[in-house]
Amino acid sequence: MRLVLATGNAHKVRELAALLDGYDVAPLPDDVELPPETGETFAANALPKARAAAAATGEVAFGDDSGIESAALGGAPGVRSARFAGPDATDADNLALLIERVPPRSALAYVCVIALVDPHTGEESLFEGRCSGTMAEAPRGTGGFGYDPIFVPDDRDDGRTMAELTPDEKDAISHRGRAARALLSHLREGAPARR
Fold this sequence. Notes:
Blueprint: E1 2-5, H1 10-19, E2 24-27, H2 42-57, E3 61-70, H3 91-101, E4 107-117, E5 124-135, E6 151-153, H4 167-173, H5 175-189
Parallel strand pairs: 1-2, 1-3
Antiparallel strand pairs: 3-4, 4-5, 5-6
Helix pairs in contact: 4-5
């Protein structure tokens, strides 16, 4: 089965294609414009992207939104994770601001919501994945991206950050990996999804 991913990010296409083994994950055609991420929740950002991709291609499509939540910041940066330090912020800028504002060992959570839209049946489904953790004392590791160097996942007992894990170790516990496995289960078994 072919699924159109509502993104122009080739890295994200490769990552999700690997997680959705057995499905043909296709990138969004270059001429399709996605709506801006203006929602206040991850679902409110993921669903319009999936709807736009499905409407433009006539194929089953999915989109996602993800970010990091800090208990010390009342859940921020959340949906604004990619632009936490400003609209043109780099990963390094965003990471530096989080380190400045959040004390070590504070609770963090990575969250990902994947929206699936079938234009043939009108079905819309949402799948959420979460990975809880804590703020590291200092950034460590060179793998991953974004906030990975300061995120110590609760699922491991060795104290490594997400940036110190191998790709397979990260996929096994990551928010995106968990959301993708929920989507995969739904596609394979027709399991009910959260709406």
